[in-house]
Design goal:
7-stranded mixed beta sheet, about 250 residues, 5 helices, single chain, BirA Bifunctional Protein, domain 2, 5-stranded antiparallel beta sheet, SH3 type barrels, alpha+beta
Length: about 250
């Protein structure tokens, strides 16, 4: 990945090891170093950040990166849009996993019911930057014991090395191609719902206000998770954490 290039980016920063690509991106923006669209890639992260500030295991072999997009007018649903782009890239390059590759609302890709990829999105309104963090277990050889039952890597599943440059290129090709429609408010909810991990399952959602349980009905055109709380009563949720599903 050290010599990776893509026309989406004005600048690409590569690091052998840093604490977090997300934290580095914010620093480059705050001190005025970053210009235009940029990408930060690190071979290893010592303090990778997941959703809700959880640590993300980021050893050698995986894809750990943060995108900085300048002047982007959207401020929500970017993780859902990015999940679609990543899912399409993975299914194109590895069609043998398509039946077991799912998108979990709002920001994860799952393979065989285990987490393969996580996505973080944040909007730095004052600096006119939107940050997009992507962590993907591509060539991760071994997971810690505590992650064995909940995380998976492409290499372990497919039993061969993954060309990270090819995969990342396809992800950003998709993002570049679909971004204009997304900016105009068009979200491919049909595709998302087709490959949803949660649709049709009984789930429990933890929000800032309360916990809700019901049957997941997919997402609407705004990216909200639809939950049937009781027969005939479907409620959209724009934020929250799905803490269980079956």
């Amino acid at each position: 990945m050290k010599d990776f290039r893509h026309p989406l980016f004005d600048e690409i920063y590569y690091f052998d090891k840093i604490e977090s690509t997300n934290l580095k991106a914010k620093k480059l923006i705050k001190d005025g170093t970053a210009r235009g669209n940029f990408l930060i890639v690190s071979r290893i992260q010592s303090g990778g950040i997941g959703r809700n500030r959880n640590l993300w295991f980021s050893p050698d072999g995986g894809i750990w990166m943060t995108v900085g997009l300048y002047g982007l007018t959207v401020s929500y649903n970017f993780t859902i849009f990015t999940g679609i782009c990543i899912h399409k890239a993975l299914t194109l390059l590895f069609p043998e996993i398509i039946s077991n590759l799912k998108i979990k609302w709002p920001n994860d890709i799952y393979l065989n019911n285990k987490k393969l990829c996580g996505i973080l999105s944040s909007n730095l309104q004052a600096e006119k930057y939107h940050l997009l963090g992507i962590g993907l277990n591509s060539n991760v050889c071994e997971m810690p014991l505590e992650l064995n039952d909940i995380a998976i890597s492409l290499k372990k599943e497919l039993d061969h090395n993954i060309d990270n440059k090819v995969l990342v290129t396809k992800i950003f090709d998709n993002l570049t191609s679909y971004l204009p429609d997304f900016i105009e408010g068009k979200l491919d909810m049909k595709y998302y719902n087709e490959y949803s991990l949660l649709k049709g399952r009984k789930i429990e959602l933890d929000t800032d206000f309360d916990k809700f349980s019901g049957i997941a009905k997919g997402i609407n055109k705004s990216g909200a998770l639809l939950i049937e709380l009781k027969p005939g009563m479907i409620q959209p949720f724009f934020a929250g954490t799905v803490i269980s599903w079956n």
